[in-house]
Amino acid sequence: MEFVEREILPRYADFDKAHNMEHVTGVIRRSLDIAQKVGADVNMSYVVAAYHDLGLSGPRAIHHLTSGKILLADIRLRKWFSQDQLKVMKEAVEDHRASASHAPRSIYGKIVAEADRDLDPDTVFRRTIQFGLSNYPEKDREEQYQRFLKHVREKYGENGYIRLWMSGSPNEEKLRQIRRTIANPQLLRQTFDRLYAEEKPKE
């Protein structure tokens, strides 16, 4: 933990608001909670969570693969984990992405995938707005809303690509709440306007 807190977690300070230190510490906390409940190795779960988004230093579309390579290439981890453990951890990091079409290959992939999906409705909608403001600053309010609308429908809508791999998790009910909001255009717009004003109050 001392090594991860000193050498790994500070790297998240360079990422956008949706993938910053607050995000990774939340994923770690939820991963450890799930690992203890299902009887998985908490040390492996901790490191998988800590490394899961490091690939955002490169192209976002393949960040999960890059993150896995970063974990496997970090020879410092060999002090605590076997080669077989590191392979499982690498695959778990690769499998965490919400758009993955296949189930994670191990319990560790399922743990980090579940922990990465912080599906508190306000958090989901706020992070979508933050990403738009950070990556498309040239867009005005209405253009930001259209981008927001397209993303939340494609990812979280009834036919969205997000998948939950652990049945009975708290995320199931949260996803239902998100979908109810998406299905109500007036409520969705009100939610966007409220959160957008908080994220960009000077407009």
Q: What does this protein structure show overall?
A:
The chain has helices at 2-8, 21-38, 42-51, 63-73, 83-94, 107-116, 121-135, 141-156, 170-182, 185-199. It has 203 residues and is mostly helical. The radius of gyration is 17 Å and the shape is globular. The model has no long low-confidence stretch (mean pLDDT 87).
The biggest sheet amounts to: none
Unreliable runs, pLDDT <50, ≥5 residues? Answer: none
Question: What is the string of helix and strand elements?
Answer: HHHHHHHHHH
Q: Tell me, briefly, the overall form.
A: globular
The proportion of residues forming helix, as a percent range, comes to: 55-70%
Helix tally?
10
Number of strands: 0
Name the assembly state: single chain
| Class per helix and strand makeup | mainly alpha
| Mean of all residue-level pLDDT scores | 87
Topology:
Blueprint: H1 2-8, H2 21-38, H3 42-51, H4 63-73, H5 83-94, H6 107-116, H7 121-135, H8 141-156, H9 170-182, H10 185-199
